[in-house]
Amino acid sequence: MIECKGVTKRYGAVEAIRNISFTAPRGQIVGLLGQNGAGKTTTLNILTGYMPPTEGQVLVNGMDMLTQARACKRAIGYLPEKPPLYDEMTVRSYLKFVCELKEVSRKEIPAHLEEILSTCGLTDVSERLIGHLSKGYRQRVGVAQALCGDPPVLVLDEPTVGLDPRQVVEIRGLIQRLGAGHTVIFSSHLLSEIQQLCQRVIILHRGKLIREADMAELTEPSDVLVLRAAIKGRQQELLPAILSLPCVRRVTPLKQAEAGVTEVRIECTRNTSPDAQTALFRLLCAMEAPIMQLISEHDSLEDVFLQATAAE
Ligand code: ATP
To answer: pLDDT tens across 25-43, in order?
Structure first.
């Protein structure tokens, strides 16, 4: 578990982050979401002890990052924005070197190395020079060096940035697998990536933490159910009829997709009896107006992010 308590960082006159507090519980993937310059890298650099905060405290499994720095850093594997790779070394020799730096016992290094190479899909390129690898493989080596010493907490700064779509899928798969046995904190400015991988999300905006919540809680449905429907029939007849249903709060016509078909957005009260879809179906059957399409809209992380940042 890693806790960030009231952390502020000032670079001279620039206040990069202000009074940030959050907890990354054991065994969860936590996403740090924010636009460019929101303060993600600064937060991660402080969490990993790479630089000290101006104010506040970081605790790793209850240990203070300032006073018990060595023990804290041993518990964290860090993939910084620019991974510290040596191009002239082979993958294997580099990872062996990192294991030695992290004081893995010499006896354990060979088995530990094989496990990391296999986890990160690097076994086949283990004897190649890092400088000759593609960006996706270099990123895997970056993740692999974070795994050396088997730390329980992994901190990854924008791990998929600059990768091609296939490499992005591979690295996301790797993060998902690592999430099963580690606490993982990773930053991204991609909402879809955070939504896909994380159980918990922290939203930073202009150096402030504006939202922290479980992903399920953040995107859980409100008491309003929003339906989108395409119905065969005339708008002038359909709109007032739909609005007359007790469960319907508002009906908004959308652009017409094809002649004779009305597309509408319907805001309904959730959990009514009968439910909104059934009531709509019965009404339209009686009107002999076939439903061509009916879907319910879900709040996406994008909506939550836009609402939170707009409120700021
Ligand atoms: P990005 O996604 O672009 O990397 P970020 O969310 O990681 O952005 P940070 O790099 O933490 O954001 O930067 C937060 C703010 O602090 C920005 O306004 C940035 O210009 C400023 N900043 C970062 N490092 C320094 C520094 N060494 N000196 C002065 N200002 C800095």
So the answer is: 888 999 999 888 899 999 9
